Amino acid sequence: MPGKTPDKEPVDNGGYRGGKDIVEKEKDEASSLKHKGKKPTKEGEEEMTVVVPPSKSSKRSSVPPNDADGDVAMEDSDKVDDGEGKVDPVAQTINDIKANFALLDRAVALFDARFTLRALRSISALRKRLTPDIISQVISETYLSSSAWEHVARRLLAAIGKQDVSLGRQPSSEMEVDSESKPSTKNGSKKESKDPIPEVDVFLGILIQVYLFDSRQYRQGAELSQYLAERVRLLNRRTLDSLAAKVYFYFSLFCEQLDPPGPSSQSATASLRPTLLAALRTAVLRKDIDTQAAVIVLLLRNYLSTSHIAQADLLVSHTQFPENAANNQVARFLYYLGRIRAIQLRYTEAHDHLTAATRKAPSSTCALGFSQTATKLLLVVELLMGDIPDRATFRQPAMEQALHPYFLLVQAVRVGDLENFEATIAEHADTFRRDHTYTLILRLRQNVIKTGIRMMSLSYSRISLRDICIRLHLGSEESAEYIVAKAIRDGVIEATLDRERGFMKSKEIGDVYATREPGEAFHDRIRACLALHDESVKAMRFPMNQHRLELKSAQEAREREREMAKEIQEGDLDEDDLGGDFEGM
Prior knowledge:
With 585 residues, this protein is an all-alpha fold. Helices cover 59% and strands 2% of the residues. Among the domains are: 1-60, no CATH class; 94-172 and 195-394, Serine Threonine Protein Phosphatase 5, Tetratricopeptide repeat; 556-585. It has helices spanning 25-36, 56-59, 75-85, 89-110, 113-121, 123-126, 132-142, 150-159, 198-214, 218-235, 241-256, 268-271, 273-286, 289-305, 309-318, 327-343, 347-360, 368-384, 404-415, 418-427, 429-434, 438-442, 444-459, 465-471, 477-489, 517-539, 546-570; strands at 462-464, 495-498, 503-506. A 3-stranded antiparallel beta sheet has the order 1-3-2.
């Protein structure tokens, strides 16, 4: 009978089961036959077994059951959501640190320093979450008590005061991610962990350096840095070059914070120079570009901190900064070179170096301090050259507050007001000393006087020396006469000096575009653009030996085609064996 139901109960397919008043008898029969895999037959016809694919609702593995009223219970799903939303920050930090170990392994296996640089870039995101407990837990899970590098692990743990931590501790179940996908032996046991590579040791040492520097433990940091620098030197691995540069960088920072500070010859900064010079010599012999660039920059910083300008100049003249160095190291080198040239009164070269340093400075907020420092020195050099900086430089949101004392200084120099200039120096002397520009700013007094004379030569066709003396607050007319004569000789103003009558007569200003000045300015801009293009081309990087792999694959393809063509000619292969038509070479 059509209304008769099958003997077996229909299989629950995850459909709607609530509300009996809306369920019809025909739908029950159709669904029961569908779940049985049989198609309803008419009279006189045989039954056909039909395979019905499961509906979308049956594929849902976590559909909650209905209650008596037909409503769906949501308690279990809420529990699942709450469990997935909570992430242990300690476990997350440990997993992030261990993720860098895989990058270091790939860097060693492929001999590609880009994976090491990726691991180093992650330090900025990890440094705020580093604690002695997290670092010690990573070390204990990475090293075994019977490992050959056990002494390295003990030395790293001693630097953070965790000597009693046991090695070879297994991670907890909460920290294991995708445990089912981990490799296992035939017996089902987990694969034995191997000893970590030396790159992992140095990377963990850098993390400890960062933690000690942030926690102001400079003495412990200097001792650890000395140990890491010696270990890097003894290992002599090219895959450690980028890590070694970072080790020496923090080594120098720790020594700068130790007592006695400053330009004292007994300071830790001065005692670090033999170590840096030995590292530079070794890096040049090993063609270690990263360490070479970093150590040259650190040595220049070291010499400038103790005011040894002559030694810094000798270092620049006797060494060659690597062309393929990182952009950050190039920017630092150009900044220190600009400072040296500014102190040596070579303002044009200093201006070129500082301009290139500000252009190469990273645009991120983490490098804002470097951009501000380089811009401050660049403004002072421009004033010493007799130029007035653009006002838009002081209107940048990130620079406005830091450059405010220099903005007042530029206003005094632009107008030629000697009294306002001296008042500005007296008010912001501490800021200028902290920026290491105070001695250069004191040289601007003659520039202020020259600017005042230039303004008066443009305003008056003839002015007496007495009026110049009064306006510039000079002591006597003889001083005014000397200053005016020097300005005429230097080409600051176009005028003549009448000593008998005691006045200065300005010449008529001709057409500026008839001179060579516009052409020279245009030539400088073109030269800067070409230099930027050349540096951009040099900075491009490509995968190593990629062209060789392409040539090898193409050669193998041609060999296969020759073999197949030869076999066809000999009758060993047919076109059917090739899977279709074959076109000869």
